[in-house]
Specification:
By secondary structure, the chain is mainly beta. It has a single domain, classed as Jelly Rolls, CATH 2.60.120. The chain is built from 4 helices and 16 strands. The strands form 2 sheets. The protein has an 8-stranded antiparallel β-sheet. Strands 2, 3, 5, 10, 11, 12, 14 and 15 form an 8-stranded antiparallel β-sheet that branches. β2 (37-40) and β3 form a beta hairpin. The structure holds 2-acetamido-2-deoxy-beta-D-glucopyranose. 2-acetamido-2-deoxy-beta-D-glucopyranose binds at residues 104, 106, 110-111, 113, 193-195. It is found in: Secreted, Cell wall; Secreted, Extracellular space, Apoplast. The active site is at residues 98, 102. InterPro entries: Beta-glucanase-like, Beta-glucanase/XTH, Beta_glucanase, ConA-like_dom_sf, GH16_AS, XET_C, XTH. Residues 1-21 form the signal peptide.
Length: 282
């Protein structure tokens, strides 16, 4: 083979290996909304859309038990009031565990709310909400779950916005036995989503579309009753916590962008705040 050809085929091989790492055809099933959910560009792009008849959604083929899961999302642009893009990990069956991002749309130019929650054994009521420090409809940004036996960290562009510690030692259940799939859906929630339900969806702007790319799971995959973790150089997440720098960034987000924290909502918990709120510094 001529040197040029060798170079070209080397290039093609590495390109194929890289792109198969996050191929939506391989990793996801479209589960709701017929043609409204689409995989495009040879598997490197996924779109969900919502019109007056239906929303749409997808789920991962695999189940995970701990991992670091990254995805880039570009949210519904323009007047997205009334729409909700949910992006979450969830187990199946009763007493489920769930780790949620939900993006609540807004009128053009008004800020999205990033709503987060953690369910353990079917119980949630642990909402924290944030504004973002950028417009999430202009470009793709990375939203990540870091989930290891010690804690769950929610990250936006690698900046931690929320930490949920394993509080089993003080009686708070932690998700660690039920494998979870990754889900996303785009749906209409104009009864409550925007300004508490005051602003309704403007269907003349439909269909509404959200975009997904660069899915990456450094995770332990569950299969036939046991989980196996990739053994590679990317598994720092298995013990990762917050170093001084990420604590500083978390404080910055919580100081300037957090708009609701269940732990500070005293009137909601007349019997006393949840245990994890009394323990955690965040
Ligand atoms: C929408 O914008 C208003 C400000 O105009 C803000 O109060 C609200 O938090 C924003 N987000 C949602 C989802 O309502």
């Amino acid at each position: 083979m001529a040197p040029n050809l060798i170079l070209i085929s080397l290039f093609l091989c590495s390109f194929m290996a890289a792109s198969s790492a996050g191929n939506f055809y391989q990793d996801f099933d479209l589960i709701w909304g017929d043609h409204r959910a689409k995989i495009l560009s040879g598997g490197s792009l996924l779109t969900l859309s919502l019109d007056q008849a239906s929303g749409s959604g997808f789920q991962s083929k695999r189940q995970y038990l701990f991992g670091r899961i990254d995805m880039q999302l570009k949210l519904v642009a323009g007047n997205s009031a009334g729409t909700v893009t949910a992006y979450y990990l969830s187990s199946e069956g009763p007493n489920r565990d769930e780790i949620d991002f939900e993006f609540l749309g807004n009128l053009s130019g008004d800020p999205y709310i990033v709503h987060t929650n953690v369910y353990t054994q079917g119980k949630a009521d642990r909402e924290q909400q944030f504004y973002l420090w950028f417009d999430p409809t202009k470009d793709f940004h990375t939203y990540s779950f870091l989930w290891n036996p010690q804690r769950i960290i929610f990250l936006v562009d690698n900046i931690p916005i929320r930490v949920f510690d394993n509080g089993e030692s003080y009686g708070v259940p932690f998700p660690k036995r039920q494998p979870m799939k990754l889900y996303s859906s785009l749906w209409n929630a104009d009864q409550w989503a925007t300004k508490g339900g005051l602003v309704k969806t403007d269907w003349s702007k439909a269909p509404f579309t959200a975009f997904y790319r660069n899915f990456k799971a450094n995770a332990c995959v569950w299969s036939k009753g046991s989980s196996s973790c990739a053994n590679n150089k990317n598994n720092a997440w298995q013990t990762q916590g917050l170093d001084a720098n990420s604590r500083r960034r978390l404080r910055w987000v919580q100081k300037y962008f957090m708009i609701y924290n269940y732990c500070s909502d005293l009137k909601r918990f007349p019997e006393g705040r949840p245990r994890e709120c009394r323990r955690s510094r965040f």
